[in-house]
Amino acid sequence: MSVVATGMALGTARSDAGTGGEETRSLDQLYAEAKAEGGKLVVYAGGDWKDQQNDTKNAFEKRFPNIKVEMVVDYSKYHNARIDNQLATDSLVPDVVQLQTLPDFERWKREGVLLPYKPAGFGKVYNKFKDKDGAWVATDVLAFGAAYNKNLVGTGAPRSVRDFADPRWKGRIASAYPNDDDATLYLYSRYVKKFGWAWLAAMAGNTEFLRGSDSAGNQMAEGKKAIGLGGWVTPDSGDDPEATTVGMLPRTDDPFVAWGQRESILKDARHPAAAKLFLNWQLSKERQTSDLWSVRTDVAAPAGLKKVWQYDNAGIDGFPAFLRDRAAAERIRQQMTVYIGEVKGEPTPGRLGTHPGSPIPSGSADGR
Q1: Ordered domains of the chain (ranges, CATH)
Q2: Which residues of 319-356 are buried (b: 16+ CB within 10 A; e: fewer)?
């Protein structure tokens, strides 16, 4: 516990961030404090594969070589339950959480388990991608939709998700289960609203459903399926003639789902200095300037595209509202199940138990 106390003392003495002000220390200053704290960090990240956050881990450790970060990837719907259980059993493992289950951050704020903190650049984050008190901030924009493999669709590329009901796509589509992942569920609910339940019935007959929101896109990119649906898609202006895979968002008027992946430091984090370093690095321009949409208003959109919140069909406001209304979400989930069947298969990250990222604390149930 001395590490926690030391880290908090450093943070309190040298910055008013967390009490209303934005962080003013440089990354190098924060790095020095993180090294003095012990040089460790544990992040629970929503995702589909054990190694999905390896690029982030490797980039962070290359930039800050004396900090070792463990990125524990699991479905957000399991991580949030895991965190609640750890809080209830006084056995908290992660320092930072970054999840898709957006309302959890609002609940955790009410429960007082998050550390209010405003990283440098907080003021430049799009208003709907941050909590005004700094309880959480989005550091990445994620988008779910559809994409296709140009080599497999040939000259008959689909112009809309509506086309996926055509019999010519039978056996050529892979999709994430909409009744397994809430982002995919919201995406499909928007498709049904626009195209109708008859569209879903026909499309489902053409489609192989898979666990993990990246699975369908991987099948498409590897040339196993012509179309990938229901998972992460790179924003695409359609201007790259060399591209093999083509994202169908936001170039059509089809609905898609985009949101800011929220991130927080837990109040009882064992490594608060390293956690602050991580959030500041995540939000810095050196990380936010890329080919992807940024959460920052002062970073340009990818070439040929607008900023994500400027697309009416992105569902920026609708997705958080959908997640808050659990009764309505469960009703639509069961209706989807009637059409496509129950979710089958093991979770793609594996089964991680109750305390991944740390030895099981004494007196805690393993749960494996």
Answers
A1: 2-140+260-288 (3.40.190.10), 142-258+308-340 (3.40.190.10)
A2: bbebbeeeeebeebbebbeebbeebeeebbbeebebbb
